[in-house]
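Because showing beats explaining, we think one record worth quoting, sequence and backbone structure tokens together, and here it is:
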Amino acid sequence: MTEIKDRTGYIGGSDIAAVLGLSRFKTPLQLWAEKTGNIIPEDISGKLQVRLGNKLEATVCDLFTEETGKKVARVNEALVHPKYPFLRGLIDRRVVGEKAILEAKTTSAWNAHAWEGEAMPQDYILQTMFYMELANADRGYLVCLIGNQDFQVKIIERDDKLQKEIIAKAVEFWTKYIEPKIMPTMITSRDADTLYSLYPLGDEGEAIQLDDTANALVDSLKAQQEDCAALEKQIDKTKNDLRLMLKDHAEGITDKWKITWKNQETNRVNLKKLKEEKPDICAAYLDKSDSRVLRVSKIKGGK
């Protein structure tokens, strides 16, 4: 199979969920930063689960044939959208005698719940539908070997409206953000590391003037922090109510829950004492890490 090594020059099937803001693994901002070369993506090719997935692909495809009686064939070239050459991908197999593709996955038994009944991971559904559009397929078979205990075969039928929308969103993301290198405004709670990678050094010079948008964000942040503090207090009270119910019992049960309040011993290094008594040893085992810390404080005399 012809591998596309430089992933910055196109949007592929594994990128689609991130384009739509629906990925479990990557945000739109992180995808944009990687595609524009602003950050270098992590090389995961050496990770055991990735290597196993690659090695087991042929086995999963063989299992599909054994389970369904349908033959499959390798595809030796990347599929490219006829109108948008920056949309491309590598499908695992074509299904012989059908206008259909096969996507082969592997996962741990811990993730079996994601494949129960009609369920499938959303990012895999989007990836398969994207490939169906590139391959002009009427059907996609999404199959998964779950640990060594289950093999699931799912069928995704063509949905012209949804598939056209997926393509339109991918084209928009490429032409509006990646190609002109304009940062997307879709910022999520998972973007702290990406933002730090993009802006690792803070200029200690003159403060910049921010507009009323910043005021609105800070007001919202303060309100959220107050709500969070109140909720944490309520959580602590609820825990104490349960502790009072247990009293000197280490465990209690209901028809739904098991509640425990057990003794345990925790050993921690007394860093303050270590610094005072053994400063050289302490310094030798301290790991330096760089970061940028966000703090908000009220300006005296401010509105």
Observations:
- The radius of gyration is 26 Å.
- The longest helix spans residues 212-246.
- The CA atoms of residues 18 and 191 lie 12 Å apart.
